[in-house]
Amino acid sequence: MAERTVADGAGRRLGGIESGRKLVSVLMSFDGERPVWTVAELAHEHGLTTSTAYRYVGVLREMGLLDAAGPAGAYRVTERVSSLQGALDAGTAALRDIAMPVMIRLRDEIDETVLIARRGGEHAYCIDRVESRHPVRLQFQRGEAMTLHLGSMARLLLSQMPPADRRRYLDRIEPTLTPGQAGQITEEKLAQIARDGFAVSSEEIDEGIWGTAAMVRAPSGAVPAVIGTAGPVHRLPPERRDEVIRCVVAAAEEITAGLRRRPGSA
After folding, report:
1. Which residues, other chains included, contact 15 with Cβ-Cβ below 8 Å and sequence gap of 6+?
2. Residue 85 has what pLDDT?
3. Which CATH number fits domain 84-261: 1.10.10.10, 2.60.410.10, 3.90.1150.10, 3.30.450.40?
4. Which end of the chain is more exposed for a tag (fewer CB within 10 A), N or C?
5. Which InterPro entries does the record cross-reference, listed alphabetically (predicted)?
6. What is d(CA 70, CA 53) in angstroms, rounded to the nearest whole number?
7. What are 129-173's pLDDT values in tens digits?
């Protein structure tokens, strides 16, 4: 059977792989911030012709992943996508079970929000977080995709990315970087972060927020996750930061030890 192709917004023919990538991108447009989209909005968002966007929506409806919602021509995801959440929870359950008691103790010790994250492709994702008793507004919510070059947690994960993949990622984002951002993700800086096993950041994602993170290692030596904390700079002044780094590194080591006692957990 001949491979089906569709056209993108510029009229170019797309093969199966690129078409599949676009289809997934359309599905991933639906999130908590934007749960309903029209076909016209999806076409504009992804640079597709309206007819191509209709075909993608049709496939997703046929698979039971999208359904009509509210205004005419608008769509939402269906309950079928909850199976993906179930698969995600099952895949990270052991890591979260080991990490959560450590995260709670770390939160109590430093009295700041504690997060654990892992890399998926070219993004960092928050697996779980334990909130500080103090009010703090952080963008890194559970399940949210963040870039790999901003913030201490993401930069640690970037330092562990396979070199060829990392180079492609850096080459792609280079035109969007400020000089300060570019200076934080040189190969030399990333190599130093990998050796240190921890990283720090200041106001890279959220204004007025300082953070630090440390690597969690699997029995194989790979880095399945990073644990970190972040809080307002007025609660984390320079004289307190070395102690917070020490606590976060110790927490990462404790989770690492837990993973070693439970083979196959990461």
Report:
1. 3, 5
2. 66
3. 3.30.450.40
4. N
5. GAF-like_dom_sf, HTH_MetabolicPath_Reg, Tscrpt_reg_IclR_C, Tscrpt_reg_IclR_N, WH-like_DNA-bd_sf, WH_DNA-bd_sf
6. 19
7. 999 888 776 767 777 788 899 999 999 999 999 999 999 999 999
What is the tens place of the pLDDT at every residue in 43-75?
999 999 999 999 999 999 998 999 998 767 899
**C-beta of residue 128 within 8 angstroms of C-beta of residue 150:** no
Give 89's contacts (C-beta < 8 A, 6+ positions apart).
none
231 to 136, 158, 184, 237: CA distances (angstroms): 7, 22, 20, 10
Question: Which amino acid is residue 127, in one-letter code?
Answer: I
Please tell me the distance from the alpha carbon of residue 163 to that of residue 148, in angstroms, as a whole number: 14
Nearest to 103 by CA among 224, 264, 258: 258
The gap between the terminal CA atoms of the chain, to the nearest Å, is 40
The dotted CATH code for 6-77 is: 1.10.10.10
CATH 1.10.10.10 domain locations along the chain: 6-77
